[in-house]
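ARCHIVE CARD
Drawer: 12
Card no.: 0347
Subject: one protein chain, sequence and derived structure
Cross-reference: see card 0346
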Amino acid sequence: MVGRLPLAALAWLLAGAAPPKAIEGVIVRMADDEVVVDVGSRQGLPSDARLQVYRRLVVTHPLSGKQIIDRFPIGSVPLAERGELLSIVRDVKGLQRRPVPGDFVVYEPVAPVAKAAPAPAPEVKAVPALPPVAPADEVALEAVLRDNMGRPLPERIQSFEAYVKAFPRAKAIDAVGTELARLRSLLDNERALAEAAAKPAAPLGLTSRFDAPRLAVAGAPLDLTVAVVETEHVEAVRLFARPRGTKRYEALPMRRDGDYYWRGSLPEALTKTDAEVEYFVEAVRTDSALEPLQGSAAAPLRVRVEAAPTDPERRERRSRAAFSARSVDFDTGGAPDRYLQTEADFTYLLEAGLLRTFRVGVGLIDGEGGRTEALDAGADPRRLALGYGFAETEMGFNEVFGVAVRLIGGNHRATDDGTAARVFGGEGRLRFGTADGTRLVVGGSALQDLGNRAFTELHIEAIDGFPLKAGAAVTNLPVDADLGVQLSFEAGWRVTDLLTLTAQTGWNARTINHHGLTAGGGAVLDW
């Protein structure tokens, strides 16, 4: 019998003999006010037996996943008819609940009274023996077991604890200790279930972040990453994909990576040449509900698949040449406070350990300016020009973070007095986000005599074929004078896979009365 120490078995245990085996059965049918159980005379069930009825309860622990099994008494009933394999019960008035098929029945055999050995011939003047008296601990334990039937777990635990405290040297103390440990474990499980049931449900609508890829290379897997903000309410994340034009989605598991990210990939079999793949990402919440994160079965996301280059050396674009020019004016139509900057550079993708790219280039800054108070008073501006060259490398510490360092050297020529000198400078940048996706760049630069610049740029790759960039900077270029603010916006157009054209505009100001515009453009070649 699961979860209890029968009184009859206890009596045999205390007597030092093996207890008789209880007979257990199951209610197999309910019909016409008759309860049919699957035990009979073949199992040793007597015709006048009284059956204990138990309700079996099986639950799965929500945290450990283990099954917890227990059964609870609901009363006893007398046997009405006994067959060889089946028996019938008709009187169920002694039950707390109506019995149902699957409930357990138990018959506990009563320990037979041992036949006394024939007494020896009485001796003259023999004193008759007193009847045996049961030890106090056995009497107390029998009372505890009898009173515990059907009581709540905390009360059953308290009664056993009181018994252990009163009879620490009882003969059955080990059996009582085992039962007490089992009851405490059941109570802990009940409390854990209650806490899990009281846990607040996940909010409606999970928040996810996802950078949708623009294209995939035929015959190569395409990695996808999605971030879920409310990760404590997510049990699993699944990716569903199919070639466009087919009906059936293929379910692809995504693996957890860190606290918020889930990663998966479209397999090579789905990325066919000159085709499109439809896909969506779905979350399995801790409350077992399904919630789409990106796209859905009815409205999937799509990625275009292009053939890989036939030349193995050109499977990935590794070279870039760029040219740009811009005119920056801090006082349009007023004091001379402006500069023109042109720059040309070449970048090569290395991907050798931490080194990701290497870049070299040349540039020219030609401008004039000075202190705003002096310019307003009619002072002549300071004029200068700088031709410079630079070398730069970027270190990629992981997919979404990189550090770039640039060294600058050149010849500074003051055009108003004709003097010239060598100047040096440097620039540093931090990249947050993938190098060819939407990313944030924060950095600063310094040039001798010309001034310093701190800037933030947001590169947006949300529209296929139209890269965008928005930036803000604080600088005292071009003559190391008063600080000013620059706000800029750049839009690009990928004319072909090789050529991208860019246009830039912006607004600049040093004071409320000293402000102007930026205009510029450029071209980028990728191969």
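Annotation on reverse: Residues 173-198 form the longest helix (26 residues). The first strand starts at residue 23 and ends at 31.
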